[in-house]
Amino acid sequence: MTSDQKLALARLVDRSPSLSGTEIAAQLVPPRQFQHATLDNYVPDADYPSQSEAVDAVRGFLQGWKPSGGGLFSRRKATPPLPGLYLDGGFGVGKTHLLAALWHGAPGRKYFGTFIEYTALIGALGYQQAVQLLRGATLIAIDEFELDDPGDTMMMTRMLGELIDSGSRVAATSNTPPNALGEGRFAASDFLREIHAMSSRFRTIRIDGLDYRRRAIEGHAVSLGNAEFDAAVKGLPRGSTVDDFGAVLSHLATIHPSKYVKLVEGLPAIALKDVRQITAQTDALRLVAFIDRLYDDQVEIVASGTPLDQVFADDMLGGGYRKKYLRAISRMIALTTGQPQ
Ligand SMILES: Nc1ncnc2c1ncn2[C@@H]1O[C@H](COP(=O)(O)OP(=O)(O)OP(=O)(O)O)[C@@H](O)[C@H]1O
Ligand SMILES: [Mg+2]
């Protein structure tokens, strides 16, 4: 690498983003990748009828905002639908696509964020002020309702309860059905009451199917040899970053995952040198959150060392966070091909 090149390339570890409550609130819209997601450009897989059922469910949910009016065709007053819709399913079956389509179709003031972004909002503003800000919204869309932390579960179920009571409707996606949230992760039984209270207000739709990204989990994330890596780094667009993988993991530990969104903001590509298998679960979970944000922004990854799809140890893949890791693998495979979808 020439010294000019070195100047043009930055390092991730030199970025230490800060994010205020107002900034988080301003970002509560679907990621760029889903800005044109609609029910019409979601193509249900005929082999998995639950996909078209999910489309119907979202369409039906949207109908809930249509004025019932007093016209000829509205003699029968439909039973009010549940205030919540919960799309549960494997990775890459289009859950986020459908959630974004719902958000785009919803009237009025509405929000779209990941579970982690909502908890970050509460962290930044405080519970009362966060509820105050969201109150009055027609729709609160929550992507990736994943529970890693019992405290967050309590806070989120309490907030959703309050918002639903004040007239908002809530739609969520997850890799885990609501009654199984927390299983294998923390003492779910301690929170069953809260989780059940919440799930009784949601209609749950299970979406089956294949990873739409069409990259089977058996596929490999591209890993380059050292010479190829250096050559690829030279070709990266200005503003890309190059770092040692281990240094990135250490850096991620110093930043709250809610700020990863800003950490990756504006990056065309990142290069990770000497990827190696992760031994600590906390590092693994941070990497998952980081990959999620890279995926939202479709940031290309160039890597050397262990292929990124093999960074999670077998015991991790067999544990309570299995689905999270598999999803991250699917996303890393997509981002290292150079042609993410
Ligand atoms: N049936 C479909 N028709 C059209 N596009 C789809 C369909 N399913 C998924 N996609 C597209 O494939 C990509 C992956 O889908 P999406 O991210 O919505 O899946 P997901 O279920 O949320 O996955 P994950 O578990 O990784 O969050 C997106 O670009 C999405 O727009
Ligand atoms: Mg998703």
Polypeptide structure, described:
- By secondary structure, the protein is α/β, with parallel strands linked by helices.
- It is built from 14 helices and eight strands.
- The strands form two sheets. It has a five-stranded parallel β-sheet, sandwiched between helices. A three-stranded parallel β-sheet has the order 6-7-8.
- The N terminus is likely disordered.
- Bound molecules: adenosine-5'-triphosphate (ATP) and magnesium ion.
- Magnesium ion binds next to helix 4.
- The site of adenosine-5'-triphosphate has 18 residues, from helix 4.
Please give a quick description of this structure:
The protein has 341 residues and is of the alpha/beta class.
